[in-house]
Write a structure and sequence with these properties.
Chain lengths: 134, 375
């Protein structure tokens, strides 16, 4: 399953407490857009198995983040020395290129700007979407 | 240097005005005066081969005084800024200058790259001459360490050498035609920051604008901010300010009205393209507010409202430092350059406070700076 392959009308639409998919359906490196209680959410399974949820909307261009790309964050300590930040993953918006830390929702260019985190959990072999995370 | 005595009979009373720090004053030395400061191996190129700096502008001169104010030319034919007595009379005593920062005219980054050894030696001679004939004779003058940017190792040696002299407050680069953010130049910025020297980047004739030099001086001179934006972009996106967080840069003779546009545009590029330049850790506008300042000249004719709006768009009133550009043709007078009804606190910052905060090596204040009587 790749986010780009999920058309809008095919997004799971769930209410509170309902599973959005089975745990096995969302494999490492995949994102799933869902309509949870009327809210657009992207559920992210990072390559290391972590599970995260963010509001599925870019702060700047409004595009769905689930149509972007999931990458390891890139940093550097000096010009030209690109390094991957192991264990830190970002969604890069498919439109304007804004990068969001999937664990915090914070943009990589400004720690004061974030998309809303949404609580997600895995239980009983399924993935559930809850309220906005604290 | 021959001192010229100003004839009191022809001199009007000084005009004075606000106490200020002038961040761009051009002293001048002819190349033959540098001979005592050059090793003999170089002499023949000046005395016999008549080496002169590159002259690349394809235009007529802007005024009857060439690039100088006509009244700054000396009676013996020397160009403006050649004589301490004349400069003192026309600038330091005429106005209420607490300190004036010398920016020179011979700087290797205003020349094409090549023959590095000669140009490095020439910069050392300029610095030694500046110390002996200007700084040590007039305590209101502060110096700039001229370096040959094309010779990075030589530049660092020169910065280390001249930093021992307390009269020098900045390292001088001319804006040139090469982007100084390139890693080859980073040691120059490291050395400057290590010694608490500001890096002044001054406009120069070897700076084309984006489509070359254009057909007319007015065309080229209108677009001077382009090259400053290029240098600023180069320094920011090549990580110079993140690498040297104590570094301060003053952009000189490019004005400052372009700054809000650059901030907005660079911030947006950074938001969208950070992944390409991950060594940059702050929004460009924040880097500018933290580490870059702008000399005012050549200032536009602003109303107070326009200038206050512009400063507001920069989101800081600490970025702009007054400069006259004496003795050049487009000299800005401290009595005329800022709108008379400008907010007094802002005027105080532009005339004085911002430069004092920027130049950490300036001597202590000599008097209380106020802007109470600006006319």
């Amino acid at each position: 399953m790749h986010a780009d392959s999920v058309p809008l009308d095919a997004r799971p639409a769930v209410g509170a407490g309902q599973a959005v998919c089975s745990a096995g359906e969302l494999r490492p490196g995949q994102m799933l857009p869902v309509l949870a209680d009327g809210r657009d959410v992207v559920v992210i399974r990072t390559p290391d198995g972590g599970l995260h949820g963010l509001e599925d909307r870019c702060l700047h261009c409004g595009r769905r983040l689930s149509h972007g790309r999931l990458h390891v964050a890139v940093t550097a300590t000096d010009v030209g020395r690109y390094e991957e930040e192991q264990g830190r993953f970002v969604i890069k918006c498919s439109g304007d290129g804004y990068e969001y830390d999937v664990a915090t929702g914070t943009t990589l260019f400004d720690s004061a700007r974030s998309v809303t985190r949404v609580a997600v959990r895995e239980a009983d072999g399924a993935i559930f979407v809850g309220a906005p995370a604290a | 240097m021959t001192a010229i005595t100003v004839d009191p009979a022809t001199s009007a009373a000084p005009r004075r005005g606000p106490v200020f720090i002038d961040t761009d004053v051009h002293e001048r030395v002819d190349t033959t005066s540098l001979l005592p400061y050059l090793a003999p191996v170089w002499h023949k190129y000046i005395t016999d081969y008549r080496w002169v700096p590159d002259r690349v502008l394809p235009y007529s001169q802007p005024t009857a005084g060439g690039l100088d104010r006509l009244d700054s030319l000396l009676p013996d034919g020397r160009p403006g800024g050649s004589d301490l007595g004349w400069l003192t009379s026309q600038l330091l005593d005429e106005y209420n200058v607490e300190y004036a920062i010398l920016t020179g005219w011979l700087n290797a980054s205003a020349f094409a790259e090549g023959w590095m050894e000669f140009k490095t030696a020439l910069m050392s001679a300029v610095n030694d001459y500046q110390a002996e004939h200007w700084l040590e004779k007039e305590p209101r003058l502060c110096g700039s360490v001229h370096v040959n940017a094309w010779d990075t190792e030589g530049s660092v040696r020169e910065i280390d050498r001249m930093a021992a002299h307390p009269g020098f407050v900045q390292v001088m680069l001319y804006v040139g035609d090469q982007p100084f953010g390139h890693p080859r130049y980073h040691p120059i910025f490291e050395a400057a920051a290590r010694h608490g020297l500001v890096v002044g980047i001054h406009h120069s004739e070897n700076s084309p604008v984006s489509m070359g030099f254009g057909r007319y001086f007015a065309e080229w001179h209108t677009l001077v901010p382009q090259v400053f934006m290029s240098q600023m972009g180069s320094l920011i996106f090549n990580g110079v300010f993140d690498k040297y967080p104590d570094l301060k840069v003053n952009m000189i003779e490019g004005g400052f009205s372009y700054v809000p546009h650059f901030m907005w545009h660079a911030d947006q590029q950074y938001r969208q393209l950070r992944h390409e330049v991950p060594w940059v850790k702050r929004l460009p506008s924040q880097i500018i507010r933290d580490q870059i300042r702008f000399a005012t000249q050549p200032i536009e004719e602003f109303t107070a409202e326009q200038l206050e709006t512009l400063i507001g768009q920069m989101e800081s009133d600490e970025l702009v430092c007054f400069s006259t550009d004496y003795p050049h043709w487009d000299f800005d007078s401290p009595l005329e350059a800022l709108p008379p009804d400008l907010n007094a606190d802002l005027a105080q910052k532009i005339f004085y406070d911002n430069a004092r905060a920027l130049y950490q090596r300036l001597p202590a204040a000599t008097r209380v700076a106020t802007q109470g009587d600006r006319r």
